[in-house]
Specification:
Blueprint lengths: L10 H29 L2 E6 L2 E7 L3 H8 L2 H30 L9 H9 L6 H11 L5 H8 L13 H29 L3 H9 L4 H12 L1 H16 L3 H6 L13 H10 L3 H26 L6 H14 L1
Antiparallel strand pairs: 1-2
Family: Belongs to the binding-protein-dependent transport system permease family.
Subcellular location: Cell membrane
Membrane topology: Multi-pass membrane protein
Length: 316
């Protein structure tokens, strides 16, 4: 006589608990995404009180965008992202390496962590308004420079492309380097101390240890940081929008792709806005794919070879 299988399966409860997420994703993300792609193939806009379309026009919206200033705005977005991201990742790596080095006795480390993370808690709109007030021609920065005799007349920081782009890059750097530092610190602290001890016993210096041991072992977090930064850079909107009053001045050198998209949404040109959204989605996907492949290769022995290289370099 065979015994009955009294094993209970709890899999259905797992599906039940994740059902709300998929329902919300389907309603609020997937359907709008599909609808955006659909509208990108249609002529659909409003002219005054008259509504034109939706009329199917194929790829005409995509071609029209290529004939517009979109490429120039993409260049602006890239420049603004580089100005903010390059110092961000350099400073974050430097601080993360210092804070996690057990040989450096830093007192009050928790206080420093809180301080560098605080700008991330400030809303971007408040940050932009603060910088607008600080660096205006009648602001405190110009007042200080005039009072100490460094300049003879107020500097129009937001009257030049270099000044405006520098301010936007500085704001993005200050808002996000703390978050990046905390993530990189967590990645470095997850590395086994035995690896660093073996590296020191082999005579490897701090610089070689950083480049040949630390960096290869935190590649997944570096890839995540770079990918999220690329997505955030392509979606840059609030800081330049508020700082330049939505105009991208001077001469639209601070106009980003999302500001360009917002202008189409404001004029209710949904077809062009949908096509531009699809362009952004494709560019984000391609860039993230290349970053992931570059930072996460299939070579599983890369860390071991890096350690051998560091060992060999230290003995040379």
């Amino acid at each position: 006589m065979k015994k009955k299988n009294n094993h209970l399966s709890y899999a259905k409860w797992g599906y039940l608990f994740i059902l709300p997420f998929f329902a919300a994703f389907f309603i609020f993300s997937l359907i709008p995404l599909v609808d955006t792609v659909r509208y990108s193939f249609y002529e659909y806009y409003r002219s005054g009180i008259k509504e034109v379309g939706p009329t199917f026009i194929g790829l005409e919206n995509y071609a029209e965008l290529l004939r517009s200033d979109m490429i120039g705005y993409a260049g602006n977005t890239l420049i603004l992202w580089l100005i903010g991201f390059v110092p961000q990742i350099v400073i974050a790596l430097l601080l993360a390496n210092w804070f996690t080095d057990i040989r450096i006795k830093i007192r009050g480390m928790q206080v420093f962590k809180i301080i560098i993370y605080l700008p991330n808690l400030i809303m971007a709109s408040a940050f932009a308004m603060l910088f607008f007030a600080l660096f205006s021609t009648n602001g405190p920065i110009n007042s200080i420079l005039l009072s100490v005799g460094m300049v003879s007349e107020p500097i129009d920081f937001m009257g030049t492309a270099f000044g405006t782009r520098s301010l936007i890059g500085l704001m993005n750097f200050l808002m996000w380097f703390g978050n990046t530092t905390i993530m990189l610190m967590a990645a470095i602290m997850s590395i086994s101390p035995d690896i660093f001890e073996a590296c020191e016993l082999d005579g490897c210096g701090s610089v070689k240890r950083f480049f040949y041991i630390t960096l290869p072992l935190i590649r997944p977090i570096l890839a995540y940081t770079l990918i999220t930064s690329i997505i955030g850079g392509l979606q840059m909107f609030d800081v330049p929008q508020i700082l330049t009053n939505g105009q991208g001045n001077p001469n639209r050198t601070s106009m980003t792709l999302i500001m360009f998209l917002n202008s189409h949404l404001k004029s209710r040109n949904y077809g062009m806005a949908g096509a531009l959204s699809v362009y952004l989605f494709i560019v984000s996907g391609v860039l993230c794919f290349f970053v992931y492949r570059m930072t996460n290769g299939k070579d599983k022995t890369g860390t071991a070879r890096a350690a051998k290289k560091a060992k060999g370099g230290s003995k040379a």
